[in-house]
Description:
The chain has helices at residues 18-29, 42-49, 56-75, 89-98, 111-120, 129-138, 156-166; strands spanning 7-11, 32-35, 80-83, 103-108, 148-151. It has 169 residues and is an alpha/beta fold. The chain has a single domain (7-166), classed as Rossmann fold (3-Layer(aba) Sandwich). A five-stranded parallel sheet has the order 2-3-1-4-5, with helices on both faces. The chain is globular. The N and C termini lie close together (7 Å).
Amino acid sequence: MDTRPKSILVMGVSGSGKSHIGKLIAERLQADFIDADDHHSATSIAKMSRGEPLNDNDRKDWLQTLANFYRDYGRRKKTVVIGCSALKRRYRDILRQGAPELRILYLHGDRDVLLRRLVSRQGHFFHGDHMLDSQLRDLQAPGEDEAIVIDIRLPPEEIVDRYLKTLTG
């Protein structure tokens, strides 16, 4: 496998497994994992906790913070994996400002699978099928020209194995 430092984005809507898969990838690459949810403003978390979807303005500073993480890791020549919804192409473009060589894994799943996962989660600020529906409406799914697309119904280890095979070369 290529051992050069990488900037990796694990993206998808809530419930797709971004944090779990991102942590597994980071562990296998001996890299740091950053959960984008940990970097939302208190205002945004309160908004989501009330069941209100975020808008582009709410996400602007948050995305810039994440792009800065990529930039910082790149300068230090270290690999970093960030789990972030990155729903729209322009959001991913902001992230690429920090890492032009950004490697993206898009965790794709259908609404029923995602909703089952969300319903079973405890203690997370994101809840409600209307919030999931909002994310699915906003999602501009990346194509194969932008990301590696893997179905979330696969076992986590298989998702990680398939993704890591794409990092060679």
